[in-house]
């Protein structure tokens, strides 16, 4: 299961590398992730959070992920 969220993590990483925080302010990706005011990668951050949360949620583990 550790590779289950690799696609979501990769898209979040690529978005953060292109964000103004990393490009203009020359901060690391980790420092930019700690800042909650970044609106550019909010969808990718939420997708990664939901993927990691679904790994811990027993109902999701039994039934499978939802397809919206």
Secondary structure elements and pairings:
Blueprint: H1 6-18, H2 20-23, H3 29-34, H4 42-56, H5 58-63
- Largest sheet descriptor: none
Gross morphology is elongated
Beta strand count: 0
Helix content: 55-70%
| Terminal-residue CA separation | 22 Å
- Mean pLDDT level: 81
Pfam families: Pet191_N (PF10203)
Family: Belongs to the PET191 family.
InterPro entries: Cyt_c_oxidase_assmbl_Pet191 (IPR018793)
Keywords: Disulfide bond
Can you walk me through this structure?
It is a single chain. This protein has 68 residues and is mostly helical. The protein has one domain (6-63). It is built from 5 helices and no strands. α1 (6-18) runs antiparallel to α4 (42-56). The mean pLDDT is 81.
Features:
disulfide bond, 68 residues, Cytochrome c oxidase assembly protein, 5 helices, mainly alpha, Cyt_c_oxidase_assmbl_Pet191
Offer a quick outline of the entry.
By secondary structure, the chain is an all-alpha fold. It has helices at 6-18, 20-23, 29-34, 42-56, 58-63. 7% of the residues are buried.
